[in-house]
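Our example copied in:
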Amino acid sequence: MRKEEVEYKTKLIEKSIQIIRASLPKTQERFSKMGLAKDGIYKQIEFAIQNLLDALNEISSSLGLEAVSYREIIENLHKEKIIGDELKEKFDFLIQLREVLIYNYDLLNDEIAFRNMEEYLQFLEEGLEFLSSFLEGEG
């Protein structure tokens, strides 16, 4: 495993989370009226998820687990008991969210996204915790 690559991805995820938290307004109404700044928040979520998935791919590859999709990577890590059921569900959700952000952006509902933003960030933070503890174990 290229440990430096996973560490770099971890830093990028942390930075994205900080940017989102600093930029997120207090109300859904303000969020909906943010225009391009709101799009930037969505883009940072997508970027953080992508970096998390890339880091998980790096871990998966280093363990010799062959996968052709992010879903397969998560399945393999779960099958090998590297991630538990709860984390698998959260990663599966993040994969779906990423797909909406990339391929179905027009389907995003600002009200729902704003209401669930804390949960999205929490899932990313749990991903960060997993990466950190995995790196420590490899250390």
The chain has one domain: 3-138.
